[in-house]
Design brief:
Helix content: 10-25%
Structural class: alpha+beta
Number of strands: 6
Strand content: 5-15%
Distance between the termini: 72 Å
Radius of gyration: 23 Å
Strand order of the largest sheet: 5-1-2-3-4-6
Largest sheet: 6 strands, mixed
Length: 206
């Protein structure tokens, strides 16, 4: 009788452990999906075709855009600085037309010399479709997409869309955005000031 009871308890224990293991794997899988998709944060001038973007690099301007934080990162006064609005010296450029390189790496501006050389050939290229002109329904979650209101009226709105131009506060130093390993060498221009300082008080072009 004791052997039968012990065997029964063992079976129940194994079933419970199996259920717990499956729950943990499901939770981990869901977390990875949530981390690796940020379509709702991408600006409508960004290129189509990417479920996740950490940074855009714009070869024509030699500046970066942090998609999760919705901040520009550019070199000014001997250091990299951040701002939520496009710096005035770049205001005459058409963000919808110029080429954007997707870089899913930590603080790519610290290796700016490498990226500038690697993507120099993309200057003057206008070969990407902006999200604004896409009729792929997955982009309708972005609040200022032309089709967003139609999606909302249809009852298919999903959370996570960006909110378009907003007033904001200074955002402080640029933090790491993912756990990727840094590769290459730092651009020699920012040896002493290699972390961006926040400035600007409004959201940039969306």
């Amino acid at each position: 009788m004791k052997k039968v009871r012990i065997t029964s308890l063992m079976k129940k224990l194994l079933i419970v452990l199996g259920l717990l293991a499956n729950t943990g794997l499901y939770t981990t899988s869901q977390a990875q999906v949530n981390v690796n998709i940020n379509i709702g944060n991408q600006p409508i001038w960004g290129p189509t075709g990417y479920d996740y973007v950490n940074y855009y690099y714009l070869p024509d301007l030699d500046i970066y855009y942090n998609v999760p934080l919705q901040q520009w990162v550019y070199y000014n006064g001997g250091r990299w600085v951040t701002t939520t609005i496009l710096p005035p010296q770049y205001s005459n450029y058409d963000l919808y037309r110029m080429h954007k390189v997707v870089i899913n790496d930590n603080q790519p501006y610290l290796r700016n010399a490498i990226y500038r050389k690697q993507y120099a050939s993309f200057k003057g290229r206008y070969d990407q479709q902006p999200i604004r002109d896409s009729r792929d329904s997955r982009y309708y979650v972005i609040n200022n997409h032309p089709m967003h209101n139609q999606m909302v009226r249809g009852g298919n709105a999903r959370p996570g869309g960006n909110s378009g131009p907003q007033m904001g506060r200074n955002n402080g130093p640029q933090p790491n955005q993912n756990g990727g390993r840094q590769r290459g060498q730092n651009d020699g221009r920012q040896d002493r000031n290699d972390r961006p300082q926040g400035q600007g008080d409004r959201r940039g072009p969306r």
